From TrEMBL:
Keywords: Aminopeptidase, Hydrolase, Metal-binding, Protease
InterPro entries: Peptidase_M42 (IPR008007), Peptidase_M42_aminopept (IPR051464)
PANTHER family, A to Z: AMINOPEPTIDASE, AMINOPEPTIDASE YPDE-RELATED
Species assigned in the record: Escherichia coli
Entry keyword annotation includes Ubl conjugation: no
Listed name of the protein: Aminopeptidase
Pfam families linked: Peptidase_M42 (PF05343)
GO terms for MF: aminopeptidase activity; metal ion binding
Keyword Hydrolase found: yes
SUPFAM superfamilies xref list: Zn-dependent exopeptidases (SSF53187)
């Protein structure tokens, strides 16, 4: 056994197993750039993948280190909602994982030089 939040409680936590991939807007180490999150939300809507947006109040992710690389890298954290995420026996919905794969594939296919220029224009 290990400590973990139960992701099925109340409206305060929007991460629900089976409701699509998560888009983490912020955690203790990173605030996702609005241009990047808007682009991801647009692509997800275009391909019909439901997306859950939320903020982590505890802990950070590797995205915190990634976004500080060089002159800065637009970074967002995405993944399936899980229960007991830091345990050897995490629980996830396979549909969320397949939708995550669809979304990542669509993002990669749409990632052009022009998109990169727009996402890295920090003005």
């Amino acid at each position: 056994a290990c400590w973990a939040k139960n992701f099925d409680y109340g409206a305060a936590n929007h991460r629900q197993i089976g409701n699509g991939p998560m888009l983490v807007l912020s955690d203790k180490s990173l605030i996702a750039p609005p241009k990047l999150t808007a682009w991801i939300e647009t692509v997800a809507a275009e391909i019909g993948v439901p997306l859950q947006s939320d903020m982590f109040s505890n802990g950070g992710t590797d995205g915190g280190a990634v976004h500080l690389t060089g002159t800065g890298v637009p970074t967002v954290v995405m993944g399936p909602a899980t229960r007991h995420g830091h345990c050897a026996a995490s629980i996830a919905d396979c549909r969320d994982i397949l939708q995550m794969e669809q979304l990542l594939s669509a993002l990669i296919q749409r990632l052009t030089r022009e998109t990169v220029v727009q996402l890295t224009d920090f003005r």
